Amino acid sequence: MAAWQKWEIAGFVTIAVALHVSAAAVLMPEQIAMGADIPAPPAPVAAGSGKMSDLIEQWENPPEAVTEPELTEPEEIAEPQIEQPMPDAAPDRAPEVSQVPSAPQLSAAKPNLPETPEPQPEVVEPELPELQSFEPPEIKSELALDTSTRPDHKPARPKPQPKRQAAKPQPEPKRQAAPQQQAAKPQPATQGGGARGNSSARAAGGGSGGVSAQQRASLQRQWQSQLGACIVSASRRANTSRRGNLQVSVSIAPNGAMQGVGLDLSSGNTRDDRAVMRAIQRVGRCPAAPAAAGVTESILIQLPIKIR
């Protein structure tokens, strides 16, 4: 398109120049003819040669009008045909565009949750043969309280021994007096000694008499206090896990042997209860009852115990 415009402008410029040139050629002779009259030259003093006269004559005569040349229309200049390059034939189909690499797919961040366990396969339970019903055997617990059987015959109390009479002191042998001195008759010592012997015998007889009921009860209380201290000391050796309170019953023979331990009140922890009862059973024996206390049968002590 730009080349066509250039050729068109060049053609117009050429036509304009030709018109201006032709107009100038037509107007110039007319201006000369229409100019002011030229004054006649002075008469020559002397006639000149023929050539000179001819020149003067030509000078005096006006110039012949110049015939205007016939203006011919300018030939139309054929516009050059510019062969425009033909565009290449479009391909049958657009070239295949290589696939744009897709952006990597970002996996969504999974929350930090515990993995769900995979479902377990169903377990087919095998058919079991029918079990015959039977009564369970009676199992005796080790912690059960062993009750002491009361003897059929009450042992007879030992009879008080008869009072021993104090031996009479033998009379001292008579000493031989010196021949110069007259031997004095010794007084019989049996009288005084016998009185002292009788009094001591009576004192002994009164002291060895039967123990009163008040004294016997006091001795029994002292023995039970000793048994309680023995049981509490044994319970502290138990390996327990926490603090608590429980109450036990302990059967003890007169000789101090433990015959059974039972639980009256639990601490709330079965393991600690069993540990305390085993620790008490391991002691085996506590102080025996004093003979003067008159204890002939096993006694049952109920004692609260604090687990530390």
Automatic annotation (TrEMBL):
Biased composition regions of type Low complexity, renumbered to the chain: 176-190
Gene Ontology BP, a term: transmembrane transport
Comp. bias regions, Basic and acidic residues: 137-155
Name listed for the protein in its UniProt record: Outer membrane transport energization protein TonB
InterPro entries per the UniProt record, alphabetical: TonB_C
Pfam families tied to this protein: TonB_2 (PF13103)
Domain TonB C-terminal: 218-308
Compositional bias (Basic residues): 156-166
Domain of life: Bacteria
Chain positions covered by the region annotation Disordered: 44-219
Taxonomic lineage of the native organism: Bacteria, Pseudomonadati, Pseudomonadota, Alphaproteobacteria, Rhodobacterales
